[in-house]
Design brief:
Structural class: mainly alpha
Number of helices: 13
Shape: globular
Order of helices and strands: HHHHHHHHHHHHH
Distance between the termini: 31 Å
Number of strands: 0
Largest sheet: none
């Protein structure tokens, strides 16, 4: 994935980053009349994110939605927390977690096999993009809106709302079977890539 923060330092206008990201997203869309019409106007970030979530499954588009969130403001992320949750649901749907779980059991994955097989999942990559040590955002980080893991105890007022990526994943159809693997993916993704293989996977309780 192109790191637009390296390509465009923070001194470069948000407008330019907006334009570059939209161009990338449109290039990933299938060729049709809708795609042609999008080339002529700059979309609002919310519409750009929704564009990534609609239509056919696409790991690249799913990840681009998080890129859009990253370059918007902290207030945008907080205001559109529900849309951010939808992005995580979409990310979880990009991979066959039931199949991955069955493979992990039948093949007896060790730490190295688990890492290698989870690195290619969208959950791993999205977690690295949003929560990894090298993750970059404008304003406060993603954890100010959605923490990675569910808090053990939450105030009563929070019980009816989703407050973590883990809570979003708990709603997934494959969570009862593959939940531990899904959580391992987001935890590994939140670690720096060059240290993961040395340290090994984070044990999941």
């Amino acid at each position: 994935m192109m790191n637009l923060f390296q390509l465009c330092p923070f001194t470069v206008s948000l407008h330019l980053i907006h334009h570059l990201l939209q161009e990338e997203i449109i290039n990933l869309l299938p060729d049709n009349e809708t795609k042609q019409s999008l080339d002529t106007k700059l979309l609002h970030p919310e519409d750009l994110i929704k564009l990534c979530l609609e239509g056919e499954k696409s790991a690249e588009l799913s990840l681009r939605a998080f890129d859009v969130f990253a370059w918007t403001s902290s207030s945008f992320r907080k205001t559109h927390a529900n849309l951010l949750e939808d992005c995580w649901r979409n990310a979880a749907d990009q991979d066959d977690w039931s199949k991955l779980y069955q493979a992990s059991v039948s093949e007896g994955w060790g730490d190295e096999e688990t890492l290698q097989n989870l690195k290619d999942t969208v959950l791993f990559q999205a977690s690295n993009r949003c929560y990894g040590p090298e993750a970059e955002t404008f304003g406060e980080g993603f954890d100010e809106v959605l923490s990675l893991r569910q808090e053990i105890t939450e105030p009563p007022i929070m019980k009816d709302s989703v407050s973590s990526v883990e809570a979003v994943l708990m709603q997934h159809k494959d969570y009862s079977e593959a939940g531990k693997l899904m959580l391992t993916a987001i935890m590994l993704g939140s670690l720096q890539d060059d240290n993961i293989e040395q340290e090994g996977p984070v044990p999941m309780e």
